Amino acid sequence: MVGPQTLRGPRGRSATSRRVAWTVADQAVSGLTNAGTAVLIARSESAASFGAYGVGFVVYALALGIVRGMVGQPLAIRESVRTDRDQVCAALSTAVALGAAVGVVVVAAGAVVRGDVGGVLLVLGVLLPGLLLQDALRFALLAHARPARAVGIDLVWGVGALALVGGAAASGASVVVLTGAWAIAGVLSALVGLGAEHLRPAWRSAGAFVRRHRDIGPRLTGEYLAHTGSAQLSILVLGALVGATGVGAIRGAQTLYGPFLTALTGLVTAAIPEGSRLYARIPDRLRRGLASMSGGLCALAVGWAAVLLSLPDSWGTAVLGDTWTGARDLLLPIGVACVGYAVASGGEAGLRITAAAREALRIRLAVGLLTVGAAVAGGIAGGTEGAVWALAIGPWATALATWWTLGTVLSRPARRDGLVVTD
What we know:
This protein is mainly α. The protein folds into 2 domains: 1-214, no CATH class; 216-409, no CATH class. The chain has 15 helices and 2 strands. The protein has a two-stranded antiparallel sheet. Strand 1 and strand 2 (419-420) form a beta hairpin. Helix 2 (47-78) packs antiparallel against helix 3 (85-113). The longest helix is centred in the middle third of the chain and has 40 residues, at 217-256. It starts with 12 loop residues before the first helix and ends with a strand. Mean pLDDT is 83; it is low at 1-6 and 414-423.
């Protein structure tokens, strides 16, 4: 049997730099896969059909947040300071079980909704367990300092998705088939990853994994649902106000910010396991490192927004097709939101590294309520553009709250098992 040590990567400062670079590269591959899929669907389908895909992607993002809170984040926070192969196998089985549970709900919703949106939900619900298994495997590899392996399995998804979706789009397939092609490629990459790493889910250990991390897992999940979930829920609610075309415009504008969001997500993803290791050794260096990360991301956000705002209409149409007309007017408010995400990134990562799940959840709940209410009010008053401007309030409120709270948490370091706990 393969021992636990086979999942642990090399150590040292240069090794840390390489891991961060590989983690950002992994997120780049994942982000480019999603962006490339979105572009292919936007160019081959009407704005309304692309909106159906956008609704499906929102549902996928919500399910992903649940599993990352219960599985991926606990692995990154706790298993990055120790190596336990059995915990990885238990985490994979937990991801599949949660994916199946959520998938049943999504399939039921698809049967009720019908049309393109219903078809997308049906396909997504069936394949959701495999998609969430793929993400859990990625997080396990990142937590155990093997990000290059994570890049490998994401490349399998990327190449497979672009090939399958591109071929289906060229044949004039429906948005339901295109969404299915993207999801099937993700499931195949999960199976390839399991084989390459000689891993298999430990079905009897799923409940034990949840119990082991019950002090932070539900709160991390609640945090995600209150933050990202509130933004995605706002978009779903806005669908009733602005229609599928409006949802498609929002998704199209977000796609254009994909490179920045990829860099942000990659750095934050790398910061959690690396920061956990640093915090266990030299806790005084944590805040300075997180502030540097936020500063660099702010500069990147401003620069990328400037590039997009100067984009000629002909280029925008070439990328997004008919969706460009609506997406163009949303670039500035989404850019303002992205700068807010950059400011907040260091504080958010710090609360996860210090396992301050209770404080983080409180912030998310408050900001989530603010975000949903503001988005609905903005949608009623100003349509799609008004709603997106209102959504930009959320990341800035999060930035203020998380940095202030992180300072409070770092001033009372009660330690246990190499981790800071606050409850």
